[in-house]
Design goal:
18 helices, DNA polymerase, domain 1, six-stranded mixed sheet, Nucleotidyltransferase, domain 5, alpha/beta, about 400 residues, flat
Length: about 400
């Protein structure tokens, strides 16, 4: 086993456009796929933009790009955009990379591949240790990457992560080939790469953690106004909303329905770094929620939603029986393939199929329904026949 301290990767920090052009030229002359990573400041800053972008390519070296001093990433996009990008947990990095114009044509996701291969631990450190025999330190993975200057030890950590990706990709690809899962992985990678961004919610405040405790329209109104006030301050200061006052405090204040600003200030469950320094602002929000005539109703029901499956046994026994049989079939197949159930077939698709199966439950019709739901061709080919067989068994 090789410890991280024994590895000293060489890297170049790029802080301006002229440096980026030079780095892009070197990367364009490199060989093979490009290892790509990004560091954000989630939990510290309001948005989720990249505060460091790392790129490594064999024959070119490792480059760390500081987006703060770079106006355009177009030369880098042109240099490596047509190459395969190796990422670990690509769904986390693609959105922030897209924001700065870095959009891959092809990807290889080592984390997703590790799931398909049946690894129980799929973090970068665990996979690198298992396949490359290198023990990585993850001390800075949750750091505030927006701070400047970035410590040397952080930059070294970021450089090593991306420099190992080409070797890791090759090791993972060999295992995919050995298990006959290369095509499965290719389809999954493309699905991640092309997945559309989620549309912004019309009522984002309803995603408050613990919001189920808000039972009355008035409590919902207070929570909404507090959420809006917190969001405005967070956006203005470029700080994560939860660092001002956490969701739990927003919900606690809405449930308590304080009678005065003093009551709000004395509320022990109303905590956070700005819970007292911005008490005037929070009280104005509470007061608006207490007096508004625009009272929220229950959460709008999604017209495409189905009843929660936990209540099917009592209210919809036939659907519950179908779901039980389908789950057992999918679990058996996932065990045979050595991959998690959710990677073999999205559980929501199974529930929807059990709730409303096609009129004809042949393998062909089940396949058509799964495709409509969004299953990839490899998933359809493997699961449609076994799901169709559950209907035959239950007739």
């Amino acid at each position: 086993m090789v410890a991280q301290s024994e590895l000293r990767p060489e890297w170049t920090l790029v802080t301006d456009d002229s440096g980026l052009v030079r780095a892009a030229e070197r990367l364009a002359a490199g060989d093979g796929a490009a290892g790509v990573d990004a560091e954000r400041a989630s939990g510290f800053r309001y948005g989720s933009e990249a505060y460091l972008v790392q790129v490594h390519r064999r024959g070119a070296g490792t480059f760390l790009f500081d987006p703060i001093g770079i106006e355009s990433f177009a030369p880098l996009a042109e240099a490596v955009g047509g190459e395969e990008w190796i990422l670990h947990a690509a769904s986390q990095d693609i959105p922030c990379l897209t924001e700065i114009g870095l959009i891959p044509d092809r990807i290889f996701d080592t984390e997703l591949a590790a799931r398909l291969l049946g690894y129980e631990r799929v973090g970068l450190g665990a996979i690198v240790e298992a396949l490359l025999g290198i023990e990585l330190e993850k001390a800075h993975s949750a750091a505030d990457w927006s701070q400047r200057p970035l410590p040397e030890s952080w930059l070294e950590y970021a450089a090593l992560d991306v420099a190992l990706l080409p070797d890791l990709r090759d090791a993972v690809a060999r295992e995919l080939e050995a298990q006959g899962k290369t095509e499965f992985a290719a389809q999954e990678f493309e699905a991640v790469r092309t997945k559309p961004a989620k549309p912004r919610s019309a009522e984002p405040w309803r995603r408050l953690s613990g919001g189920h405790a808000l039972k009355s329209p008035r409590a919902l109104a207070i929570a909404r106004e507090l959420w809006n006030a917190r969001d405005a301050v967070a956006r203005e200061r470029d700080v994560a909303p939860g660092r001002l006052i956490p969701d739990a405090s927003v919900v606690a204040a809405a449930v308590a329905n304080p009678r005065s600003q003093g009551d709000l200030a004395r509320l022990q469950t109303f905590r956070g770094r700005a819970s007292r320094t911005e008490i005037d602002r929070w009280w104005r929000a509470v007061l608006k929620g207490k007096t508004t005539e625009d009272l929220p109703g229950p959460r709008p029901r999604d017209p495409d939603s189905i009843p929660h499956h936990r209540g099917w046994a009592q209210r919809h026994p036939e659907a519950a029986e179908r779901l039980t049989a389908m789950r057992a079939a999918i679990e058996a197949e996932s065990e045979r393939l050595g991959m998690p159930v959710e990677n073999l077939l999205t559980p929501e698709y199974v529930r929807r199929l059990a709730w409303q199966p096609p009129a004809e439950t042949s393998s062909e019709q089940i396949a058509l329904r799964l495709t409509e739901l969004g299953a990839r061709p490899w998933q359809v080919a493997l699961t449609a026949p076994i799901l169709a067989s559950t209907f035959v068994d239950n007739e």
